[in-house]
Amino acid sequence: MPIDWLQPVGIRLLDQTLLPDREVYLELRTVESVAEAIRALRVRGAPLIGIAAAMGVALAAAAEPAAHERVKGAIALLGATRPTAVNLHWALHRMERRADAVTNPGDLPGALRAEAQAIWDEDRAMCERIGRYGAALIPADATVMTVCNAGALATGGMGTALAPVYTLLEAGRAPKVVATETRPLLQGSRLTAWELSRAGVACTVITDGMVASRLRLGDVACVLAGADRIAANGDVANKIGTYTLALAARAHGVPVYVLAPTSTIDPATPDGAAIPIEERAPQEVTGWRGVRAAPDGVGAWNPAFDVTPAELITAIVTDRGVLAPRDVTRAID
Fold first, then answer.
1. Helices 46-62 and 86-100 meet at what angle, rounded to 10?
2. E strands in the chain
3. CB-based contact 316:258 (threshold 8 Å)
4. Which residues are catalytic?
5. Which of 64, 94, 126 is the last residue of a domain?
6. Mean pLDDT over each residue of the chain, to the nearest integer
7. One domain, residues 118 and 196
């Protein structure tokens, strides 16, 4: 479990930056430490970021004396950590609405902890529904390809893009996964391969530059991708490399399924061009874990996400069903 409550007040968080080498759990007891964990990718994955942020607001409310002003400050601090993932702001807006409904400051800690727990519980149930809908699209014992990590490490439950894999596994099937390594932070090779191997799912890692060659072999039934934000027209922001994978899949006639909870759909964003794309430090590209790979003085462009146009996506699988990209806002009507 990548996240849990600490008693009496705190969050137990798996530091995903250290996987697969070390499995280290952090004890976070302030909203500032939660914000740092989100910003540094110690916790990641759009749904799990939202859960962690909600829990961080609850931590702020638990500080003595309880105060609405402290909660508002915590929401502003957490909201500034990652601009692209809409689940973060969705969860924070929900926590803010719950706080505004509480008239007695003494009731804030209990009310906001209960709201954060509800967000977590609902995400777990949404993952299970996504798994059932997605599993129906995958042939028995098929090989699927994924990008980044959208499994149990990225959500409050079994995952989004990996949820159909786990659903099939529970049904006695034997799905197989080809995971792109997902440069520059290797969420595919470090995280997806780690959790799949622990679950007993056959997994093969490839570099990002190998996707077209592997799809050309003809053994991949479909591509499964998560999402950090889905625009109203069905364009999808996801980890950098998803657009490349979708283009290669279209060239080889392989369907692309995006799997995400309804909280990832942002009707206020009309299309992909309006999605803010986080740019991260060039050091993530020019080196790895403190070892520089590029010559001194060479810069790097490091967008954390790209946008896959709706026309490259076969279907979007939500907890409310399978939709054509153009119809995605129907999931939240």
1. 30
2. 3-5, 11-14, 25-28, 143-146, 176-180, 202-206, 220-225, 229-231, 236-239, 256-259, 265-266, 287-288, 291-292, 305-308, 315-318, 321-323
3. yes
4. 228
5. 126
6. 96
7. no
Q: What is the pLDDT of residues 221-268, one digit of tens each?
A: 999 999 999 999 999 999 999 999 999 999 999 999 999 999 999 999
- Given 93, 126, 159, which residue is the final one in a domain? 126
Residue for token pair 């849990």: 4
Distance CA 72, CA 53 (A): 13
In 3-state terms, what secondary structure has residue 145? strand
Question: Are both 277 and 252 inside the same structural domain?
Answer: yes
Query: For the domain that residue 279 is a member of, what is the CATH number?
Result: 3.40.50.10470
Domain of 144, in residue numbers: 130-332
The CA–CA distances, whole Å, from 267 to 19, 21, 179, 262 equal 35, 40, 30, 11
Is the bond preceding 267 in cis, omega lying within 30 degrees of 0? Answer: no
